[in-house]
């Protein structure tokens, strides 16, 4: 469905875009958690 909404030709394009976004969000969340734990 996302592939169709974004008009991507191949599902691989959609998967690549979302995989990169997901990794970036995980990294940002872990950095925020680390900062919260290190700064009371």
SSE succession: HH
- The number of helical elements comes to 2
What percentage of amino acids are in beta strands? under 5%
Structural class: mainly alpha
- Describe the main β-sheet briefly: none
Percent of residues in helices: over 70%
Average pLDDT level: 85
Total strand count, please? 0
Instruction: Give the overall shape, derived from the CA principal axes.
Output: rod-shaped
Number of domains: 1
What's the end-to-end separation, in Å? 43 Å
Tell me the Rg in angstroms. Answer: 15 Å
Q: Which segments are poorly predicted (pLDDT under 50) over 5 or more consecutive residues? A: none
Would you kindly provide a written description of the structure presented here, covering whatever features stand out?
The chain is mostly helical and 40 residues long. It has one domain (2-38). It is 82% helix and 0% strand. The chain has helices at 2-6, 11-38. The longest helix is centred in the middle third of the chain and has 28 residues, at 11-38. The chain is rod-shaped. The chain starts with a helix and ends with a helix.
């Amino acid at each position: 469905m996302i592939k169709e909404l974004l008009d991507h030709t191949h599902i691989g394009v959609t998967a690549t875009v979302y995989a990169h976004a997901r990794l970036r969000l995980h990294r940002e969340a872990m950095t925020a958690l680390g900062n919260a734990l290190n700064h009371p």
